[in-house]
Amino acid sequence: MRQTLFVDYKKYITKMKPEKGLTFGKRKRSGRKQSGEITVRHKGGGHKRNFRMIDFKQDKCNIPGKVISIEYDPNRTGFIALINYSDGEKRYILAPQNLKVEDSIINSETAELNPGNRLPLYRISVGQFVHNVELTPKQGGKFARAAGSSVKIMAHDSGLTHLAMPSSEIRKVKSDCWASIGLVSNPESILINLGKAGRSRHLGIRPTVRGSVMNPCDHPHGGGEGKQGIGLKYPKTPWGKPALGVKTRKKSKISNKYIVKRRTKK
């Protein structure tokens, strides 16, 4: 097993097969755009998957729901929870930590601050950790959707809420955006070590080759006899543009005014 580390899903998963009415087949693009050109390298192959329809908006307000099962989703790092609402409809949501089968959740302005409940930001107290946070009202959750991630409520100020992002950036969003209480499940995901190339191929990840071992015609770092340095002041992409640590965000971006503090280097 080499250095393999993986999550024992049997401890958390209560149902193996997904709800059939909430899944559909999704064709893989292998890192290609519509015209067939590769836009993301090192992608292709992998095991066949069904896509689970996740309710990121959670717009069923004031209708309580009960957790039927906690399930594995091959399309994301966190677990998902199947919710049966009191009106008979079933939906998938991102499962927060400590959410269990038979627990009740609700999306309401007057909901308690329990894991899985969803409220507008102005109803959530400072210091609380939330996930699946909206960027603009009624758009659906955009922030903190990966395993173990969360956003911390820092302050409420004149219709805006200050959020500490997982990247350590502090930014302002409108206080009438909605968020779910708690951290996303499966925090051990960051510790996973695939252990062998085969498991990587099952995930649809193809081999990655260093630029320094390529020929000069294939990469700016290529060429030279034996093991050589890149021979440049700074590293470059295969297309000759600066790489590693270069800021790509536009200085004139409209949403820059909502950033209180830039993220720090880790």
Which terms summarize this structure?
266 residues; OB fold (Dihydrolipoamide Acetyltransferase, E2P); globular; 2 domains; Ribosomal protein L2, domain 3; single chain
What do you see in this structure?
The chain has 266 residues and is mostly beta strands. It folds into 2 domains: 9-189, OB fold (Dihydrolipoamide Acetyltransferase, E2P), CATH 2.40.50; 213-266, Ribosomal protein L2, domain 3, CATH 4.10.950.10. It is built from 1 helix and 15 strands. The strands form 4 sheets. A 7-stranded antiparallel sheet has the order 7-14-8-11-12-13-15, with no helix packed on it.
CATH first level of the largest domain: Mainly Beta
Query: How does the major sheet shape up?
Result: 7 strands, antiparallel
User: Order of strands across the widest beta sheet?
Assistant: 7-14-8-11-12-13-15
Strand % is 15-25%
- Rg result: 22 Å
Second rung of CATH, namely the architecture of the largest domain: Beta Barrel
Topology order in helix (H) and strand (E) letters: EEEEEEEEEEEEEEHE
Report the span from N to C terminus.
31 Å
Number of domains: 2
